[in-house]
Amino acid sequence: MHLIPLSKDANVNHLLLFILVTMTQSPESLSVFPGEKVTIRCTASSSLRSYYVSWYQQKPGQAPKLLIYDDTDHASGVPARFSGSRSGTVYTLSITNDAADYYCLAEGCLHLSGTACELGEWVWEGRRD
């Protein structure tokens, strides 16, 4: 972790904080029978209270589609057969009946000055499932 002053002015106390977080998705691939529930996990290399994960689905020839944001919230129009959960540094997407590529996106916000978001960090990881 590195703390770097954003200003040499003694009256400015904002700091820029760099934190390296790696997301590891598992399993890399899997085959299931139609109607069977699938669970995909993304594990963060370290814990940061203000990290949230979004899950995206991508089908061939299409742009990624947001399914889940803030760990567990459904994007507009996303059916209940998709669900997200979190336990510590492990983020989980559960799916029924939908073959595609799935990606997790870790998004962090550090609140160093009131409620303003001082830093956002994004880490992508994805596999064909």
UniProtKB/TrEMBL annotation:
Domain of life of the organism encoding this protein: Eukaryota
Pfam families linked: V-set
Residues spanning the signal sequence: 1-29
Organism name: Chelonoidis abingdonii
Keywords, ordered alphabetically: Signal
Protein name: Ig-like domain-containing protein
Ig-like domain location: 21-107
Record-linked Gene3D superfamilies: Immunoglobulins
Xref: PANTHER family: IMMUNOGLOBULIN LIGHT CHAIN (PTHR23267)
